[in-house]
Amino acid sequence: MTAIQDIPVRTITGEETTLAAYDGQVLLIVNVASKCGLTPQYEGLEKLHEQYRDQGFSVLGFPANDFAGQEPGTDEEIAEFCTSTFNVQFPMFSKIAVTGAEKHPLYQQLTAAMAQAEGDKETHRARLEGYGLPAGQDPEVLWNFEKFLVSRSGEVVGRYAPSLTPDDARLTGAVEREVAK
Q: What would you report as the CA-atom Rg of the chain, rounded to the nearest whole angstrom?
């Protein structure tokens, strides 16, 4: 299994890199989308990033168009939307697939490391299915804005359902514990 830090990724502006650039930091990796009912979570993610970044914490956003076409834009359009609508300052990466046959190696690693998300995923899944939308099944990502918490050493230490908001005490408490280590 490849270390998460060694997996190649591309920034939203097109630079090839790896997450080694964030070595020693606590990371919250989130698959994001700009046309989702959960899109307002960008605001809470930015607040979380701002609150803890001086303690070695970063939110990392990975746009994905895997769920109901809710991220149709180009990387440039996504970057513009995030900046102009939510003043996102946390690092954003190029659009990737987080489910299915084209799933990016980062998400292969994340979902293999932690198969279950904390939070009320069954209610969220039922709501999606009520709208006729096919939700992901464990260990796959359920929907946009699923969150993975990665320790300073690169270990996945938490996974949070899409409906669990960035200000939820379960998430903020876990971030606080990790940055204190």
A: 15
- At 2 the pLDDT is 62
Active site residues: 36
Q: What is the pTM of this model?
A: 0.95
Residue with tokens 């994340």: 110
Give the residue from 32, 52, 51 showing the smallest Cα distance to 41: 32
Using alpha carbons, select from 32, 156, 151, 142 the residue that is nearest to residue 90.
32
H or E stretch including 147? Answer: strand 147-150
Cα(40)–Cα(86) distance, rounded to whole angstroms? 8
Determine phi and psi for 156, rounding to 5 degrees: -75, 115
Q: Flag residues of the chain having pLDDT under 50.
A: none
